[in-house]
Each structure stands twice: as C-alpha cells, then as structure tokens.
Amino acid sequence: MSEISFLDSVNRNFDRAASFTKIPKGILEMIKACNAVYEIQFPVRIGSEVHVIKAFRAQHSHHRLPTKGGIRYSKMVNKDEVEALAALMTYKCAIVDVPFGGAKGGVAINPWQYTEEQLEKITRRYTTELIRKNFIGPGIDVPAPDYGTGSREMAWILDTYVTFKGGEIDAAGCVTGKPVSQNGISGRTEATGRGVFYGLRELCETPDAMAKVGLTTGLKNKKVVIQGLGNVGQHTGLIMQKEGGIKVIGVAEYEGSIYKEDGIDIESLIEFRKSNNNSILGFPGSTTLSDRMAALELECDILIPAALENQITIDNAHKLKCKIIGEAANGPITAESEEILASKGILVVPDMYLNAGGVTVSYFEWLKNLSHMRFGRMEKRFDSNAYQRLVATVEDLSGKKISDTERAVLTHGADEVDLVRSGLEETMVNSFQQIWKVYSTRPEVQTLRNAAFIVALEKISNDYANLGIFP
Asked: Can you tell me the distance from the alpha carbon of 427 to that of 312, in angstroms, rounded to the nearest whole number?
C-alpha cells in the first residue's frame, strides 16, 4: 500500500479531528482551504550561466494578519509541501495563542551546491518577487528561517525589503530569525529546541500520561533517540541533557546512525562531527548501526524525529520500540502510520504543538521590532536594584551575610533572553494543559494530535465568528 502525500496526510488528520467538533461544515472548509499560493520562476545569473529558480509562498489563512511561516531551501520543495506546512503553521499559531495566520515559503534549490554570494543573489531575487506581489511585510506576511536557511538569509531579506520600502518605520518586522545585531532577538536560534524540551518536560511531569505509557514521572534519566542534528535536533539534545537530565542513547543523521548504551554527549558529538567530515560515524565508544533509519527502531523511552517529514511510515511504524514520540520536525509521521502507533500504545506529541517554540519566539521578535526596543531595557536595572535592597534588608534583620555568588543570582535583573525563555515556557506549559484537558476528558478523541487540532479549530472558528464573516 502506498503512502499518501504530506498535504493529504495533514488534511486527513484535520478531517479526523474535525469530526469530533460541532463546528459548522462551511467554517471547517474555510479553515482547511489554502487562501493563496504564489508560484514563481525567476532567472539568476550563476557564473556564466543563467539558472531558472522555482519558488513558492503559500498563505494558508488570513483569519489573522500577518501570516507567518518559514522559508526552506530544498531541492524537494513543491507546491503541496508548502501548502501542507502553511496549514500546520495556521494550526500551530492558534494552539499557542500567537495572533498570526499560517504561511510557508520554499525555494527549490540545494543550498549546499551554491556559494554564499550565489545564495545571496537567489535570496534577494526571491524577496523582490514577494515584494512585487505584496507577499511580504510586517502587517502582511512575515517569513522566518526553516530547513536550509538561517539568520544570514533573513538579514538579506530584511536588507532587500528596506531597499524597496525605504522609510517604512516598522520595516524590521518584515522577517524574523534575524541576527541579534540586526533587529533579531536573543534566544531565537534555540527556540524550537527549547520549546520541544518544555513540551516533553510537561508531558513527563503529568502522572496520568506517564501511567499510560508505563514510565515514572519526570524527564531525568529517560532514554532518548534523536533523528537529525540540524538546528532543532542540536538544541533539543543540548537543552534536554543539560536541564532535563536525559540520556541520549541513539542519534541518526543523513550519513548514518549510532548507538551508545551509556549515553552520547551531544555537545561532544557536535564537535566530533565538525572535525570528522561532517559525519557522526565513528564517534568514540559508539556502535554504528546498519543504516540511518535503524536508530528509530532502538528500544527507548522517547524518540524525537527532528529532521524532515514522512520519516515514520507504514513500512517502519510497527518496528518502533519507544514509549513516546516527540515530533520536533514538521510532519515526521504519516496519517496512516499513526494508527499503527496508537495500536502499539505509543503516545505521540504532535508537531503543531511541540515545535511551536520557533514561531512563539518569532512573535516576540516581531513585537520587539514593532516596539523598537529590546525586552528588559526599562525594567532590568529597576528589578535588580529592588532585589539588592531586599537582600540587604534580610541580611540586616537576620544578621547573616550571603556569598557574592548567591548575591549575584538573587539580585539578577532579567535580560532579554531570560524574558524570552520565560515567555516561551509559559506558552508551552499553558498550551499543553489546554491539549491535555481535551485529551483526558474526551475519550473519543483518542490521540494528542486530535486534541491539538480540536484546540486549534475551536480557536480559529471563534476568530471567524468574531470577525462577523459568517452569520
């Protein structure tokens, strides 16, 4: 039996969850439809040749503006994929209460086949095409990094936009994921991985959830396998090891996968890969597995697919031996294979919730750009001075002194990154509780993905009702 497409998989999940709601059919059809797709082919001179580049930008929903979503550079990019990712962004933003509609962009190139100068040409030309069709702007559509792109590309997009829109006071908000030195925000690079940590931590601290999968509460010492060491996989592993005390026993990457029963230090593995021709194979003390998909079949507590979509399919779902799957990537599990996972009692934490850390902190960056002031600038010193006075008062009353290290910790005023992390933690914890309430009180819902969809659909339908679009 052949797998359905990524877009069909997203829509099938939508339909399944929609059946558990009382939302009128017409509103559901409006929510499900992709509002606009811009398909572009533009020429770029590369050396002595002219390359025709194919690219896309999909705006899935205009129930809230601006629309929001990353831009990926991948040879595999196509219209269906971009539409599917844009739809996920709509539902994702609703779940975490970020006031954006969903969007997504893609440029059909292999970025590793081009020089930095050539990539800049392609990025600036793509941005120009978006500007021409009014598909970018701080109040219209705000891109961000995705697979194959990063802060460098976002800086090129901003510069191109400013060139065309000179004098627009909020121009910096036309794109997020920018370098901190160029109107970006501290904590954006780690945001998706940190959000995955907060989401899985909250799940593992929920007694009913752990009883369901036969595990003890808490993240500490949970055995974890990570697929993908890109930005999301790296930061997920680093933060979960440092702050959650997990044990990473397996890692999969493009070149293959490795296993180490007593644990793989992610920081050491990242450094090793840099010095080993960009390969994790041969990491000291590890065993090289048969292929890059073999790590997914290791016996573990938590499997974290942090690569691309359609990694867990009807061909390998029955081989998985994990208790929990945390979807750090977008769409790593096909709709058909999820039924197999459910029959095995595997709890899936869905992508539309778990990897929402990126868009949440992008929202914070957008707010920073509109306010024209970094977070913490006004209150940090006031808070620090107030804490100093409080500590001094306690010392005077108790007759005891604390160490300089303790004083520094107790009197620290919040920097921008502290506030960003705090806001992200609040968002992920609150959103999980909303999803878990639906899941735990409505047995017919069956999966956390259905519960997450229901939370999103009810919020979006309320938006449409409040806009007065429907009687």
From this structure: 28
Token pair of 210 as six digits:
């752990």
Whether 220 is a known active-site residue: answer no
Between CA 124 and CA 408 the distance in angstroms is 45
pLDDT average, residue stretch 275-291: 89
HEC assignment per residue over the chain: CCCCCHHHHHHHHHHHHHCCCCCCHHHHHHHHCCCEEEEEEEEEEECCEEEEEEEEEEECCCCCCCEEEEEEECCCCCHHHHHHHHHHHHHHHHHCCCCCEEEEEEECCCHHHCCHHHHHHHHHHHHHHHHHCCCCECCCEEEEECCCCCHHHHHHHHHHHHHHCCCCCCHHHHCCCCCHHHCCCCCCCCHHHHHHHHHHHHHHCCHHHHHHHCCCCCCCCCEEEEECCCHHHHHHHHHHHHHHCCEEEEEEECCEEEECCCCCCHHHHHHHHHHCCCCCCCCCCCEECCCCCHHHHCECCEEEECCCCCCECCCCHHHCECCEEECCCCCCECHHHHHHHHHCCCEEECHHHHCCHHHHHHHHHHHHHHHCCCCCCCCHHHHHHHHHHHHHHHHHHHCCCCCHHHHHHHCCCCCHHHHHHHHHHHHHHHHHHHHHHHHHHCHHHCCHHHHHHHHHHHHHHHHHHHHCCCC
Longest dimension (CA), the chain: 78
The catalytic residue among 104, 178, 260, 380 is 104
Residue 252 near residue 228 (C-beta atoms within 8 A) = yes
Q: How much is the average pLDDT of 264-288?
A: 91
CATH superfamily of 191-354: NAD(P)-binding Rossmann-like Domain (3.40.50.720)
pLDDT for 126-159, tens place per residue? 999 999 999 999 999 999 999 899 999 999 999 9
| Domain spans in the chain, listed from the N-terminal domain onward | 36-182, 191-354
CATH superfamily of 36-182: Leucine Dehydrogenase, chain A, domain 1 (3.40.50.10860)
Residue 347's closest CA among 467, 458, 432, 459?
432
pLDDT band at residue 3, thresholds of 50, 70 and 90?
low
Cβ atoms of 6 and 84 closer than 8 Å: yes
Residues 269 and 233: their CA atoms lie apart, in Å, by 12
